[in-house]
Automatic annotation (TrEMBL):
A Gene Ontology term for the protein's cellular component: membrane
Annotated segments matching region Disordered: 857-941
Claim: Membrane is one of the keywords in the record: yes
Subcellular localization, as worded in the UniProt entry: Membrane
Protein name as catalogued: Prominin-like protein
């Protein structure tokens, strides 16, 4: 008991919701305008952000990290620069001479600069001092011919260190050459990238202009065409929906049926004629088949062959007839035809026509009302379109002018830049190439010095070998000399390059790559003052009485924010905040401003309908007479049930063909010949009946069935009978008349309101499309940001990075030059020594002052102009003590007066003089170390 009320309570809200949904169902199916989309796929931009460091990326990263160590995130401390209203002024710290924060921030760069300046000043002095020292015999300028005890170890260690230094130096030289070439390539192609950027920017502006024209011009024309078509079809749509809602179209259907009555009568007469023809033809066929059957039975029985019996049994010759069809059972249509004739001659058609004319008059009234107001609505729509087109023309004209101005003002400057680059950049390239070549020359000298010093033999002063250790030492001294001659110049260039590259990368490249809250970008933003420019544009827009008003609120614009927003591929409207002087939202006021909504409301108020009388009482009586006519007696089943297309059980031509075959095989004989002739005659009769009687009967039967079926469908209108259909017509027409008179006015007003609402909705859908496309689709900033990135790549990655890589490679070489000088000077001295370590005893003898310059005085009795064999030369180069000790002995050819009379019992020790005869004992006097006499002058000539 409790569940029923609860179900009822639940059903009531459901019914209310269903009623609301039904009432909310739109009466008219207004088709939305399908706007064509702007196709940007055919637009191709050529700027490229691709970049290949070609193996130098790690160096560039290291260089950038080094620069980050020296430069702070904010390169200019607060209080030193003030940018205001397009002017750059000194800050309060400058006026107060407060340089502490600036020095604190850049102490590292100042320290490096100071060290470099000191090195630039000192290196020539150090080189001069070293040169003078060596000229006076010091600093390795003159060395003993014998190795000291640890010289071999020194040569190995210093050679290894110099090899490491030289190997590292190769990297710096390669970097210098490569970065110099890359930088030149970047400089030569910077204008090409700039041209691509200008071309893409112009293409972007032109594409944006075309998109604006497509949206504000072409799309509005599409909307306007659909709206005009909607207005032209408005009256027909209103009447059609009114007829459908009220079922008044049934009157038209009934009127059309009455108009078809002559056709129905003709169809009935045709059916009557076909029925009569079928009866006659069927009677003729029956008579003929009875005769054929009688003859065939007689002949086939007399034949007696198996084939004759088989034919008689297979085709049931004994039951050959018209398949049992009784054509006399077909209905007689005469009375129905007479009834239709009476209806045609009555006033039924004119009575229904009066109702149709009433409806036509209602249609014409509605149509005339709509047509009178269409020009006003169309005029308002055209005015709106004209205003939108003016806005489109203004915006596209400005964009095209900017594109043309960009092209005209950019290309000539780029051509000038090409001339300057072609004329002057080669000097910078040659300067870098010269520095790199000097580094390479030093490297080559060091490498040759190491090769000769490590692989060559000791110098002996007599051989003709060019790559001995002495040559290696001379290569070392040559490398050191070049270093001292060029160090200051190269260091000055490297220091200047370091300062320029650091400032450029931090001020330009880092700021452009990360413009959000960047100090340099903020200074540029304050200097340009875009907000002041926007204020001027806003004032000009207000004075020009633009169709699109400026927004009430003014949003500030900043350069860094513009770049970041552009990076997100936002529309140009959002990126540049164009609503400050062109508010696209104001386009939503155009329909009301130009009177579209006003004219539509006037149209809705003028559409009215009057009361109508669709059927008069006389028309209703005529229709009732039609309902009770003999057309109700038409029964299609009597035709379809009593008619068949199989007139005979078997095809007569088939039986005739079989009989001819049997006749041909009948045995010969007098009686059998008669049977054969009879069978062929009967076959001929059957073929004639099939052609002349059966086939026409089949055609007539087929036509009769088709006519009866079509007529039955025309009379019943989908109902069970003709009278039920007419009753339904009467009911629906009466209800339609009642609906039009009672609810028609409200229904028409609702339809009109929906039409106006749909019209207005279409307009505002377009307005919203314009607003949404302007804010989100038109001028997406991705291509411009791609140009922006391509310029950064062309300038920073392809010029600034190689520029910083160049000074990094040069500085690397200069740092390695300092130990290389020390190693080179040391090794050059060691490589000049011609004799190995002789032992501690001989070394101690060589410590005397008298022997200090012996290595500079050639032996008097030494061999002159004598070529030795290679083996002897190598042997003697390994130990030259024999030359010094034996060639100076009296055994060699020499003037006798210079011969030493002392005995030659040295036993491997340094020679000592013996007392001559008549001299004091040896214990009292010891000769000094042997002196050297070069011999007579004639021996040297």
């Amino acid at each position: 008991m409790a569940t029923v009320p609860r179900q009822q309570m639940l059903s009531v809200p459901l019914l209310l919701i269903l009623v609301v949904v039904v009432q909310a169902e739109p009466i008219l199916k207004i088709r939305s305008t399908e706007f064509t989309r702007f196709n940007e796929s055919s637009v191709e931009f050529v700027s490229s952000t691709s970049y290949n460091a070609r193996g130098m990326a790690p160096l560039y990263d290291i260089t950038n990290h080094v620069i980050n160590v020296f430069v702070d995130e904010n390169p200019i401390p607060e209080g030193y620069i003030t940018v205001k209203e397009g002017e750059i002024l000194a800050g309060p710290n400058v006026s107060d001479n407060n340089w502490g924060p600036l020095l604190k921030q850049y102490w590292a760069i100042l320290l490096v600069t100071g060290i470099c300046v000191i090195m630039i000043a000192l290196m020539p002095i150090i080189g001069l001092c070293l040169c003078c020292c060596r000229c006076f015999g010091g600093c390795g300028g003159r060395s003993q011919p014998f190795d000291k005890k640890h010289d071999t170890c020194r040569r190995a260690i210093l050679g290894f260190l110099l090899i490491c230094s030289t190997s590292a130096l190769v990297f710096g030289v390669v970097v210098a050459f490569v970065t110099n070439s890359y930088m030149q390539h970047g400089v030569e192609n910077i204008t090409t990238s700039a041209r691509h950027g200008v071309q893409d920017t112009r293409l972007f502006l032109q594409t944006t202009s075309s998109h604006i024209d497509h949206l504000l011009n072409k799309n509005y024309q599409e909307l306007n065409t659909d709206l005009k078509q909607m207005l032209n079809d408005a009256s027909d749509n209103i009447i059609k929906r009114l007829e459908e809602e009220s079922n008044a179209e049934k009157l038209t259907t009934l009127y059309e049926f009455v108009g078809k009555l002559p056709g129905i009568r003709e169809s009935l007469q045709q059916m009557k004629q076909l029925t009569s023809d079928l009866r006659i033809t069927a009677s003729q066929l029956n008579d003929g088949l009875r005769g054929v059957k009688r003859e065939l039975l007689t002949s086939l029985n007399k034949c007696g062959t198996q084939e004759c019996i088989k034919v008689m049994e297979d085709y049931k010759i004994g039951r050959l007839n018209v398949n049992g069809i009784d054509y006399n059972s077909l209905p007689d249509l005469s009375q129905i035809i007479d009834s239709v004739t009476e209806l045609i001659e009555s006033s039924l058609g004119s009575a229904i026509q009066d109702g149709v004319e009433q409806m036509e008059q209602l249609k014409n009234t509605l149509k005339q009302t709509v047509l009178e107001n269409i020009p006003k609505v169309q005029a308002a729509s055209d005015s709106t379109g004209k205003a939108i087109k003016e806005v489109s023309d203004t915006l596209t004209s400005r964009l095209n002018n900017i594109a043309d101005m960009l092209g005209n003002n950019s290309y000539k400057h780029l051509d000038t830049a090409d001339d300057y680059i072609t004329q002057y950049s080669i000097y910078r390239y040659y300067a870098g190439l010269g520095i790199s070549s000097v580094l390479l020359l030093i490297l080559i000298c060091l490498v040759f010095g190491l090769l000769c010093g490590i692989c060559g033999k000791r110098p002996d002063g007599y051989g003709d070998d060019c790559c001995n250790k002495g040559a290696g030492g001379r290569f070392m001294i040559l490398a050191v000399t070049i270093i001292f001659l060029t160090f200051s110049i190269i260091l000055a260039v490297a220091l200047a390059s370091f300062l320029i590259g650091t400032v450029t990368r931090r001020v330009a490249c880092d700021s452009l790559r990360d413009p959000a809250d960047d100090q340099i970008i903020n200074y540029i933003d304050q200097f340009l003052d875009l907000n002041r420019l926007y204020s001027q544009l806003r004032s000009e827009a207000e004075r020009s009485k633009s169709k699109l008003l400026a927004s009430d609120t003014v949003a500030e614009i900043h350069l860094g924010e513009v770049i970041v927003t552009c990076q997100k591929n936002e529309s140009i409207y959002k990126v540049l905040k164009l609503h400050n002087f062109v508010n696209i939202q104001s386009i939503g006021d155009f329909p009301e401003e130009y009177g579209i909504t006003r004219e539509l409301e006037a149209l809705k108020a003028k559409i009215q309908i009057k009361s109508v009388e669709i059927l008069t009482p006389e028309a209703k009586r005529d229709i009732e007479t039609l309902r009770s006519s003999k057309l109700n007696d038409f029964d299609v089943d009597k035709f379809t049930d009593n008619l068949t297309l199989n007139i005979t059980e078997y095809n007569l031509n088939e039986i005739a063909e079989k009989l001819r075959g049997v006749a041909d095989r009948v045995p010969t004989g007098k009686e059998m010949n008669d049977i054969k002739v009879n069978l062929k005659n009967q076959a001929l009769h059957l073929s004639s009946y099939q052609t002349n009687l059966v086939e026409p009967m089949i055609a007539s039967t087929n036509q009769l069935i088709k006519l009866s079926t079509t007529l039955d469908s025309s009379l019943k209108f989908g109902e069970r009978s003709f009278s039920d259909a007419i009753d339904k017509f009467l009911t629906q027409i009466s209800e339609a008349e009642k609906y039009i008179n009672e609810n028609g006015k409200a229904f028409v007003q609702n339809i009109t309101a929906e039409l106006v609402s749909g019209f207005t909705r279409q307009i505002y859908a377009y307005v919203n499309l314009v607003i949404d496309s302007t804010q989100n689709d038109i001028g997406l900033c991705g291509p411009v940001h791609n140009v922006y990135q391509s310029v950064i790549v062309a300038s920073c990655n392809r010029i600034v990075d190689p520029f910083n890589g160049f000074w990094a490679g040069v500085v690397w070489c200069l740092l390695l030059f300092l130990p290389s000088i020390i190693f080179g000077v040391k090794l050059s001295t060691l490589y000049q020594k011609s004799d190995p370590y002789p032992g501690p005893m001989v070394e101690s003898e060589y410590l005397y002052d008298a022997y200090t310059e012996r290595d500079n005085i050639p032996l008097a009795s030494g061999p002159k102009n004598k070529r030795r064999k290679k083996q002897d030369r190598r042997r003697e180069s390994r130990d030259r003590r024999e030359i010094y000790y034996e060639e100076g002995s009296p055994s060699h050819s020499r003037d006798p007066r210079y011969n030493d009379m002392a005995p030659k019992n040295w036993d491997g020790a340094p020679p000592r003089y013996q007392n001559p005869p008549m001299a004091p004992p040896a214990a009292e006097y010891e000769r000094p170390p042997p002196y050297y006499y070069p011999g007579a002058p004639s021996e040297h000539e």
